[in-house]
UniProtKB/TrEMBL annotation:
Top-level taxon in the UniProt lineage: Eukaryota
Protein name: Reverse transcriptase domain-containing protein
Length: 71
C-alpha cells in the first residue's frame, strides 16, 4: 500500500467503532478502494476516520448488518 493511501486509514486500537457515517471510493492510479467514514467511541470524545471497508467488515461485521442505514 502506498504512503499516500496509508495516511487515510488511521485506527484507534483501544477504541470501538460506533457507526458507519459515510461511504466513498478512493481512486488510485490502478485501482479503486471502497472506504467508510467511521465514528469511534473515544475517551477524548467522538473521533472520525476513513477506513478500508473490507477490513472494517471483517473486524466489525455488526456495523454492516441489514438494519444499517448506509448501504
Amino acid at each position: 500500500m502506498s504512503n499516500d493511501l496509508r495516511s487515510w486509514f488511521v485506527t484507534f486500537p483501544n477504541e470501538e467503532p460506533v457507526e458507519i457515517m459515510d461511504r466513498e471510493v478512493k481512486q488510485l492510479k490502478q485501482s479503486c478502494i471502497p472506504i467508510v467514514k467511521v465514528r469511534w467511541n473515544s475517551r477524548r470524545g467522538p473521533e472520525f476516520t476513513w477506513e478500508r471497508e473490507d477490513q472494517m467488515k471483517l473486524k466489525y461485521p455488526h456495523l454492516f448488518d441489514d438494519t444499517s442505514v448506509l448501504r
